[in-house]
Amino acid sequence: MRTIAHISDLHFGRLDRPVAEGLVADLARQKPDLLVVSGDFTQRARERQFRHAAEYLKRLPTPQLVIPGNHDVPLFDVFRRFLAPLSKYKRLISNDLRPMYRDDELMVLGLNSTRSFTHKSGWLSEEQLLDVRTRMCDAPNGMVKIVVTHHPFIPPPRERHADVIRRGETYLDELADCGVDLLLAGHLHLAYHDDLRSHYKSAKRSTLSIQAGTATSTRRRGEPNAYNWISVSPGLCTVSVRAWCENRFEQSLVTRYACVDGAWQRQAQVPVDKVAEQVLTEHPATDADAPSTPVEAGVPITPPGDERSTGER
Questions:
Q1: Whole-angstrom distance, CA of residue 201 vs CA of residue 215
Q2: Does position 291 have pLDDT exceeding 50, yes or no?
Q3: Domain topology for 2-294
């Protein structure tokens, strides 16, 4: 079994400092096997914000796998946005836009889904999909395979038209052929997870899509600051949301999945404190989320128009 601390959307420039300090302390106690940061280190991609984020990363556990988010691309500096959109990120955070972590049980690949030609949305290129195929398809059976993007593949249960990764249905075959088990993302500042097949009829493999809320930002969307504590082994996955409550991070909602006959099934969803109880009360699970019920194929997300960059065309 491996443990992953999945944090996202730090947003230096809109940082809640007591929460940020609490996250340092909580991660030091938890001691994950891997720390994954799924983008948005900064609020406006400014030099000072990146420097503060880089110093903060040094205080967090290692090994780390990090990728940029849309807020890490300059918004108002048009020259840099189109000619060198991630130059500050590459210089101060990480020069690797295709990071890979691998041990004898786990393989994790990070992909940059941000694009200069859109303010919020993102997608993957053909070259990135080829990277998934060449780096993950030949991995031995029995390894847990995970792909990390900033933009989520599925929308939250109560916001069906939220900003998810564009053309997601066109990436499903590569992910399935390579046996990808989990997808990790952030972007929407909401913590939720589900099977890809609940949103894409064309998905031929059961894959868990797991999103993290904002770990340290003041830009909360009706939920407390939180991160995901993921325990995973072949055929088993537990997602624990650790939420900020009364000046510390606490385990708030624990969801256990088991892969039965090739399909991820939700075995249990347990609120363990008042934060989770409040979330479940305000946003109760639907019948499709009932314990021990296989996730069925649902309605696919309507694909957007072709908004590729000139280089991708």
A1: 32
A2: no
A3: Purple Acid Phosphatase; chain A, domain 2 (3.60.21)
